[in-house]
Amino acid sequence: MPDLLAMNLPVRITTALLVGAAFVIAVALPLAVLRADEPLKIRLGWIGVPGSWGPPVDEKKDLAKHRGTSYTLELSRLAGTSPMITALAAGELDIAPLSFSAFGLAVENGGLTDLRIIADEIEDGYEDYYTTEFLVRKDGPIKTIEDLKGKTLATNAIGGATDMAMRVMLRRSHLEEKKDYTIVETQLGNMKAFLIDGKADLIAPSPNFVDADLRGISRSLFTQKDAFGLTQFTAWYARAPFIAKNRAALVDFMEDYLRAIRWWLDPANHAEAAEILARLTKTPPASLGWAYTKQDWHHDRDGQPKLDAMQHNLELQKELGFLKGNIDVKSHADLSMVEEAALRLK
Length: 346
Prior knowledge:
Elements (H helix, E strand, L loop, with lengths): L10 H26 L3 E7 L7 H6 L11 E7 L3 H10 L5 E4 H9 L6 E10 L8 E5 L14 E4 L5 H12 L9 E4 L5 H6 L15 H6 E6 H5 L2 E9 H26 L4 H12 L25 H13 L16 H9 L2
Parallel strand pairs: 1-2, 6-7
Antiparallel strand pairs: 3-9, 4-9, 5-8
């Protein structure tokens, strides 16, 4: 501040300016403190429900003890993992669910070496929980994987986790794309029609595995578990600088996250959970009885991803030619926040 007394201003003016300056400082300092103490806005991506945890967690605001105090939550729905990577790279998302395959490509091709695995979301093939099925027609000629030679296979995303499981199984039977079979890409919602109309001879329709009509005309040829064993299907990721800057608020968020998913996974809440999911998905509650049971993929109640399984998944991804180098999964994991959150809830 300039030396007002040395400027030879009239005493009344000088006094008024000093009083005014003191008032501005007195008001501005608390405002600056308030801005520094504002809750962290966490921008969380999601793809679909059931599966993505974003909307279910958002629905249980009554369990979010820290929301509005240390953090706020903003959800963004994106079509798949590729736009999630783009949004993370551009700073438009803070936390995003990625498949193991998308993570590998993001690190190796996207240059996102500061990506960190911070929590579990979906595991395929865990113990006796559901594993993605690859279906063929019951009345068709395909009885073995070898019978897929010369056939058309449908995938929802080339290079995705399910797509890679399919390729692994065919490679084990000495079948390679283009030479021995054709792959077509289509949305999950189109899989049933592709099989019925003969546009594809093999489909992987998850999460539509409870469709009674589809069950009636199809049978499982193999599963994701047959290809990969346990698959760390999707996990939550954030970038290291965001974590370092906001660790305390993220621990609070993880505490609320675990409290919410434990509610969703509790069989005692299943009827209410189905009603909420029905509203979110605009489908009858009776069609969602499988969600968050053993008919569904596994979700870890402590938010702990299976890092060893993910390492194995990435190694198979490399064998298929989708990755060039090796990625050390554990060096890209920061589970300290979700672990601290779990300790708080004991």
